[in-house]
Amino acid sequence: MENKSLAGGRFLLVTVLNVVITVFELLGGLLSGSLSLLSDAFHNLGDAVSVVLSYVAHRIGRRRQTRQNTFGYRRVEILTALLNAGVLIVISVILAVEAIRRLLAPEPVKGDVMLLVAIVSFAANLLSTILLNHGAKHNLNIRATYLHLLSDALASIGVIIGAILITVWQISWVDPTITILVAGYIVYESWPIVKQTFAILMEGAPKLDYDAIAHDICALPEIKGVHHLHAWQIDENNLVFSVHVNMQDLPLSQIEPVYRQIEALLCHKYNVNHVTIQAECYRGKDESLFYKQNDWRHD
């Protein structure tokens, strides 16, 4: 039920909210001369695009496997998460550069207008983050979008504080300083998503205790050795695993129950979703757990 709601009404409401906030903040930023409001407006524009992309990717990712895509379409969500996080970082760097320019050459800011717009924006951004909070715990794509929205909610708090300082004490350097701080926070939060999505797209191995896995498999009485182990992720929740095992020369009817034991072990203890096992008697028994290039040429 949660996936359906995330893919439907919540995405639509969050998109509408961010479009409205973007227009409101652009007008407020131009009227007040506030860079932090303008930066928040651009972030909200990015949020609106991010939410639409997340919705489309979420729908595509739920499609069944086909002959052309035998693992399904989950990687679409990973690509979208990488794009969203990457765009956030680029926008943050651009705004930080502009903020530094403003620090060196301060410009007047209307604190009262800035404060009103920031309060309304904070309320809308907070509502958006609440709407996507649950899905962000289980999905990188939604998490990247959630971070977009959370960063804007935090930015709005900074803008509110800055507006109060500007209105009461006319401290003009507060506005670009807040922009730099928020930009730094966004980069800090976005970079782990970039690393994780890039690792998945590069077929990086998930963090598992492979020596323990090999030990557990070899503990089965029929198994004499393990080699050529491979593990990768389709997305952050689905692990794929393949391994060659050396066994006694048994008929297939006796090998299949051993396969089921290995699959159960990997599923229940290591959260592996899809297992491929190749049984061999003597071939590869002296080869390494992880294949070397010379080993691969022998296959």
Automatic annotation (TrEMBL):
Gene Ontology CC terms: plasma membrane
Subcellular location: Membrane
Limits of the Cation efflux protein cytoplasmic domain: 206-280
Membrane topology: Multi-pass membrane protein
Alphabetical list of InterPro entries matching this protein: Cation_efflux, Cation_efflux_CTD, Cation_efflux_CTD_sf, Cation_efflux_TM, Cation_efflux_TMD_sf, CDF/SLC30A
Transmembrane segments: 12-35, 41-57, 78-101, 113-132, 153-171
Keyword list, A-Z: Ion transport, Membrane, Transmembrane, Transmembrane helix, Transport
Pfam family, one: ZT_dimer
PANTHER family attached to this UniProt entry: CATION EFFLUX PROTEIN/ ZINC TRANSPORTER, RE54080P-RELATED
Family label: Belongs to the cation diffusion facilitator (CDF) transporter (TC 2.A.4) family. SLC30A subfamily.
Protein name, entry field: Cation diffusion facilitator family transporter
